[in-house]
């Protein structure tokens, strides 16, 4: 499979054009992945544009690609959204990375009541930037035409507002309805995963009152780093993406 790179220049490119990779992306192509002149590669803009071409110039700070084909990929519908509670260590980042590879379309950091990690002030912007970097690299690895968005950190009150307009599923071990049994109705799906200590009783009640539904994956209780990706995989299959 051809190596894949992302550049904003891909948006306006047409067959016959030359697209130039610069900066970190050029270094990654030339130095890390060792692209050679004549090698077939793919390019995207992260917003549906998909280009194929051959490297015509390879330098440490610049890689030129002669475009041979262009496809405009439609945004997936319905959208799969992961609300991932902040967790200690790198468990939330592991969930973000795997979910991106498996097909999530948007990731929402959640400051849950039981989150040990706290995103406040400048830390919130830094954390979101970190997650966005993870998502970009995971999307490139998975050869995704659309790079998932990473929203600003949300409170439970903000999630409740979202639950009133979108279909929100709370991944909760105490639920009686399995995710595999759920009927999908074409609406966007918002999956909510709690932190290590789980979603608190008050949060469950508040979100359910706003319209959210409790669902369970199976008999095993999964870690916060595993639950979201597992649910995304189940839904990707159910929606015919796989």
Characterization of the model:
By secondary structure, the protein is α/β, with parallel strands linked by helices. Helix content is 31%, strand content 26%. The chain has helices spanning 23-32, 91-102, 122-141, 156-163, 201-209, 224-238, and strands at residues 3-6, 18-22, 40-44, 49-59, 62-72, 80-85, 106-110, 149-150, 167-171, 189-193, 213-215. The strands form two sheets. The protein has a six-stranded parallel β-sheet with strand order 8-7-6-10-9-11, sandwiched between helices. A hairpin with a 4-residue loop joins β3 (40-44) and β4. α2 runs parallel beside α3 (122-141), α2 packs parallel to α6 (224-238) and α4 runs parallel beside α5 (201-209). The model has no long low-confidence stretch (mean pLDDT 95).
């Amino acid at each position: 499979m051809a190596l894949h790179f992302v550049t904003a220049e891909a948006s306006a490119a047409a067959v016959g054009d030359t697209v130039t990779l610069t900066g970190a992306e050029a270094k990654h192509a030339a130095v890390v992945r060792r692209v050679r002149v004549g090698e077939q590669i793919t390019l995207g803009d992260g917003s549906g544009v998909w280009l194929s071409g051959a490297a015509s110039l390879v330098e440490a700070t610049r890689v030129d690609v002669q475009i041979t084909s262009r496809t405009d990929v439609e945004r997936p519908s319905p959208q799969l959204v992961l609300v991932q509670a902040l967790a200690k260590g790198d468990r939330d980042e592991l969930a973000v990375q795997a979910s991106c590879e498996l097909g999530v379309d948007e990731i929402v950091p959640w400051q849950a009541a039981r989150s040990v990690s706290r995103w406040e002030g400048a830390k919130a912007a830094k954390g979101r930037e970190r997650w966005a970097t993870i998502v970009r690299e995971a999307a490139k690895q998975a050869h995704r035409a659309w790079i998932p968005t990473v929203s600003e950190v949300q409170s439970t009150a903000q999630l409740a507002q979202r639950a009133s307009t979108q279909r929100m599923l709370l991944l909760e071990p105490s639920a009686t309805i399995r995710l595999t049994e759920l009927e999908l109705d074409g609406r966007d799906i918002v999956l909510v995963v709690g932190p290590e200590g789980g979603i608190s009783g008050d949060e469950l009640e508040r979100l359910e009152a706003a319209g959210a539904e409790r669902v369970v994956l199976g008999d095993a209780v999964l870690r916060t780093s595993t639950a979201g990706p597992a649910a995304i995989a189940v839904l990707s299959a159910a929606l015919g993406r796989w």
